[in-house]
Write a structure and sequence with these properties.
alpha/beta; six-stranded parallel β-sheet; 44% helix; globular; NAD; oxidoreductase activity; UDP-Glc/GDP-Man_DH_dimer; NAD(P)-bd_dom_sf
Length: 440
């Protein structure tokens, strides 16, 4: 099948490469010429596990190419994935869907034959019907233009895997032809046994927000429990294990730390909360807002732990090394990164802050140039009074404390992601404090 992917960002690039991997001929569209040039050269402007190799393979084969010319995509493809950004609006509570409607306004006038628009961007309920009316009104083909909403459930850091081997697919359709097209484009995935949920568009639109919001609730819940453990001297890691074996709950997504970030969870929970209020579901909105408030306080909780861990040593004038800049491991995305929020809070408290990250130094430096950065893990400890683990990259859990112990004068590690096994570090002379776990 010939497909286009409109929007080449954290969603569009992995999706375009994955569609080529499935055997389709793919054209990606973006307004940034420099980005398009890099992509056509097989260079990936974002980091996702396995994505650079996939991109290079399919741009070299000719199955995948990129352009800034949206008419070229309209003429080429029979199915058009919309993967443009929907950032949070100026009100801070709803999606800014300007790019979605902008893409439709540019594409639809070139549709002179039947085709299918497949929305993947996260949107407010009711968007599909509005997009359908706009596209069919602008397109010479009129009602022969079908619109399906097919929300993505990608975990950043696992976008390639989650596109090629998702745990489920959802298609919000209004016609039998729309369902047929979705089954055709995803045929290899469906043949592998992945379930397809065929729904009406509004159910598909709500499903994405509901899934991300539930994950946010789990994260906020276990962070609230971690705070209780801090106060009582309990061990949140053991509570996670105890809850995780309950089949009604499970341990997935229940990782205590300094909160969620990135380009999806924060905005999806804000927008889903706003939708609940707009729909008159006030009690649901109150519950969801409580989860947001817990997440918003996680930097303060971490700062309190760091202050207590330092004891008599003052925070002001200290030199802190923050391990982690990306909002989660496996990606170089730093949007709404709790790690960078914590690094900024340390700096505001008078610390000199150096940040290390295995992949996200360049993207973090562009957003927070006031901080110091290094991509050398051992060198990141030079002159440090304390080390703060803020993103749970495996490199930090695998770091050998014996090889690093002579760098800080009085080695102190504050693990804000309950990621490491503290005993080898303590045996090597480090003082270790972890959120929600007894310190020594």
């Amino acid at each position: 099948m010939r497909v286009s992917v409109i929007g080449c960002g954290h969603l569009g690039i992995p999706h375009a490469a994955a569609m080529a991997e499935l055997g389709h001929e793919v054209i990606g569209v973006d307004v940034d010429q420099a980005k398009i040039d890099r992509l056509n050269a097989g260079e990936c402007p974002i980091y996702e596990i396995g994505l650079p190799e996939l991109l290079a393979r399919h741009t070299a084969s000719g199955r995948l190419r990129f352009t800034t010319d949206i008419r070229e995509a309209a003429d080429f493809a029979e199915l058009h994935f919309i993967g443009v950004g929907t950032p949070i609006d100026a009100d801070g509570r709803s999606y800014d869907t300007a790019q979605v409607y902008g893409a439709i306004r540019q594409l639809a006038p070139h549709f002179d034959r039947p085709c299918t628009i497949v929305g993947k961007s996260t949107v407010t309920v009711g968007t599909t019907s509005q997009v359908t009316a706009l596209a069919q009104g602008l397109a010479p083909a009129g009602e022969a233009v079908d619109v399906v909403w097919n929300p993505e459930f990608l975990r950043e850091g696992h976008a390639v895997q989650d596109t090629l081997r998702p745990d489920r697919l959802i298609a919000g359709v209004t016609t039998a032809e729309g369902e047929k097209t979705i089954r055709a484009v995803y045929a290899p995935i469906l043949d592998a046994g992945v379930p397809l949920f065929v729904t009406d568009p509004q159910t598909a639109e709500l499903a994405k927000g509901a899934a991300n919001t539930f994950l946010g609730l789990k994260i906020s819940y276990i962070n609230a429990v971690a705070d209780m453990c801090e106060a009582a001297g309990g061990d949140v890691s053991q509570i996670v294990e105890i809850l995780g074996v309950d089949p009604r709950i499970g341990s997935g997504g229940m990782k205590p730390g300094i909160g969620y970030g990135g380009g999806c969870l924060p905005k999806d929970i804000r927008a889903f909360t706003a939708s609940a209020r707009q729909l008159g579901a006030d009690q649901a909105a109150t519950l969801l807002r409580a989860a947001e408030k817990i997440n918003e306080t996680r930097t303060d909780v971490a700062m309190d732990l760091i202050t207590r861990a330092l004891g008599d040593r003052p925070l002001e004038g200290s030199r802190a090394t923050v391990w982690g800049a990306a909002f989660k491991p496996g990606t170089n995305d730093v949007r709404e990164s709790p790690a960078l929020a914590l690094a900024h809070a340390l700096q505001q408290a008078g610390c000199t802050v150096a940040v290390h990250d295995p992949q996200a130094v360049a993207t973090a430096m562009a957003r927070n140039p006031e901080l110091e950065y290094t991509d050398d893990l051992a060198a990141s400890l030079d002159g440090a009074d304390l080390v703060v683990l803020a993103t749970e990259w495996p490199e930090y859990g695998q770091a050998a404390p014996g090889a690093l112990v002579d760098r800080p004068a009085n080695p102190l590690l504050v693990d804000c992601r309950t990621t490491i096994d503290p005993e080898p570090w303590r045996a090597a002379g480090w003082t270790v404090h972890q959120l929600g776990r007894p310190g020594k």
